[in-house]
Amino acid sequence: MNIIEKSYKKILDKCQKKENKVYLYLISFLESIIFPIPTDIFLVPYILASVKNYVSIAFLTTFFSVLGGCVGYCIGYLFWEETSVLVINYYPEINMKLNSFIVEYNKYGILLVILGGFSPFPYKITCLASGFLGVDFILFFIFSFISRGARFFLVCYLLSRYQEKANKLIPKYIGKITILMIVILIFYILVKST
Fold this sequence. Notes:
- This protein is mainly alpha-helical.
- The chain has nine helices and no strands.
């Protein structure tokens, strides 16, 4: 097992106790800034332990994720010159994704914030790049809340509705579900603009 897998197992063990929701919200916050593992995986034990509370868990997970996203935005906006050297030296893959986001943002604008919040593309990159590019903070916040909320509410609803079946299916199909949602969103925007 590598370090990330060991860390994930330890965190997941902590998450098994439903009174430890603070771990979930902390992970949700940190994942939007630097944590490498998606929050969705950590939702599983909480929802399965507390199926009836999936709405409040999804809301609070969204809230802390967007709060972390705002911190990431501020780092990009205020400290990019100071932190870019660290990112380039220690996280070259983040730097490549950041450059890709910047190019794509110039083509698609705020739509990328929506996609970054919902899709498997790392939300932390969306946040840093949005700050660095000076994306309107209010728009960033609103569309982050909508996209992160849509993602977490979808995962929480599926887990509460289908429980163990969803636990097996979500990791397998989340990418396909995301692509479908992106296609629907792009189709909706194209239809609305004509």
